[in-house]
């Protein structure tokens, strides 16, 4: 499944805004995807044991699925994420000076 663009930008480009639990939940989703794609049972098991966070706070964030987790996190960070001053699209990173949607720039 391809991630919606704004979720990718949020979790890859605005990581410093995530709480430690949100960062772990995001990592769980990435690792689960790797596990899905991997064909070696021993490696799958290793990924599971080493990289899946099991803290109740992290599992709580993911209990109603990845879509809800993305939506809730985006909502929580509303106003803190970086947006294009012209079209208000979410920027790729918090330091971006180029809009990914309308190509507006605000370098100075
Ligand atoms: Zn724009």
TrEMBL record:
Superkingdom of the organism of origin: Bacteria
Entry protein name: Uncharacterized protein
Organism: Rubritalea profundi
Organism placement in taxonomy: Bacteria, Pseudomonadati, Verrucomicrobiota, Verrucomicrobiia, Verrucomicrobiales
């Amino acid at each position: 499944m391809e991630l919606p663009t704004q979720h990718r930008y949020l979790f890859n480009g605005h990581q410093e805004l995530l709480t430690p639990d949100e960062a772990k939940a995001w990592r769980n989703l990435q690792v689960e995807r790797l596990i899905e794609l991997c064909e070696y049972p021993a490696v799958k098991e290793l990924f599971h044991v080493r990289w899946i966070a099991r803290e109740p706070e992290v599992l709580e964030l993911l209990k109603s699925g990845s879509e809800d987790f993305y939506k809730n996190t985006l909502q929580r960070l509303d106003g803190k994420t970086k947006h294009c001053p012209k079209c208000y699209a979410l920027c790729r990173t918090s330091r971006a000076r180029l809009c990914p949607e309308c190509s507006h720039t605000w370098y100075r």
